Amino acid sequence: MKTKDVILSVIWGILACGFILYGIMIAAIRSGSKFYIFWFFMAAVCIFFAFAAKIHLWTKLKKPIKIALIALVVIGISAVGIFEAMVISSMNKTGPDNLDYIIVLGAHAKTTGPSVVLKARLDKAIDYMNNNPDTICIVSGGQGVNEPFSEAYGMKDYMTNNNINEDRIIMEDKSTTTMENIEFSKVIIDKHSTKDDYSVGVVTNNFHVFRAMQIANDNGLNNSYGISAHSNPLYLPNNMMREFFGEVKYLICS
User: Fold this and answer.
1) CATH topology of domain 101-253
2) Which pLDDT tens digits describe the chain residue by residue (254 residues)?
3) Any alpha helices (H) in 92-225, and if so which ranges?
4) Which has the closest alpha carbon to 144: 153, 156, 134, 135?
5) How far apart, in whole angstroms, are the C-alpha atoms of residue 115 and residue 236?
6) Is 95 within 8 Å of 201 (Cβ atoms)?
7) Domain-by-domain residue ranges, the chain?
8) Cα–Cα distance between 30 and 107 in angstroms, integer?
9) Per-residue b/e over 106-132, b at no fewer than 16 CB within 10 Å?
10) How far apart are CA 202 and CA 244, in angstroms?
11) Of the candidates 189, 173, 236, 186, the residue with the CA atom closest to the CA atom of residue 215
12) Strands 136-140 and 101-105, bridge-based pairing
């Protein structure tokens, strides 16, 4: 093997090991999502490229195939980059004071309490409600197959245990997706509100705000604002990649 091919094989091998370790770490936090599989897939791709470098596969390909592969990679990287830039631009949204309602989007709930992602959303909502005593909170999330109860139930329990009056909390416990979180919560607010021009804050983690607000606006919540909760920087690559595929699914299915 040429020195260049050896170096490439080593680089791809190191990347594969990194993806495997990151996938194991994401799986270990038990967030309720199986997206950690993506990182094992990326590791497999790196192993393939390491093998391809070893057998000089690239030099054996015909020029049209090389052009098509390069174009595919450039398009893919560009699409991810553009979307992630939009995600980053929405990461620090705070929303105005004195909103009529806030919707807290659900995430994985456990018997031991909310997941790391959900706890950050709830803590942000609690902080907002303490500073805005007239705001009503919709906790939105149904029960997944790997959850002991509905996310909405766990969210309300956490908030009441943190001194939020249960009269200020309305449960929406049927939704299973972000789209349904927004749709079903809007139905509840439309029935509950005494005015048509009510204002709404959508509380979710910073990496999720862009898509959540896109869905909110598409569903007629025109007077709505994103409220960003923090997220662990260590898990951010996983969450942001998951958001990219969530956006692709949303654009295809909407």
Assistant:
1) Rossmann fold (3.40.50)
2) 567 777 888 899 999 999 999 999 999 987 777 899 999 999 999 999 888 888 888 888 888 998 999 999 999 999 999 999 999 999 999 999 999 999 999 988 888 889 889 999 999 999 999 999 999 999 999 998 888 999 999 999 999 999 999 999 999 999 999 999 999 999 999 999 988 899 999 999 999 999 999 999 999 998 999 999 999 999 999 999 999 999 999 988 87
3) 116-131, 151-160, 178-192, 209-218
4) 153
5) 15
6) yes
7) 3-89, 101-253
8) 12
9) bbbbbeeebbbbbebbbbbbbebbeeb
10) 19
11) 186
12) parallel
Six-digit token string for 152: 């909405």
Tokens at residue 128, please?
Answer: 């907002």
What span, in angstroms and rounded, lies between the C-alpha atoms of 41 and 192? 46
Between CA 34 and CA 182 the distance in angstroms is: 23
DSSP codes of every residue in 1-38: --HHHHHHHHHHHHHHHHHHHHHHHHHHT--S--TTHH
Q: 229: which DSSP letter?
A: E
Length of the chain: 254
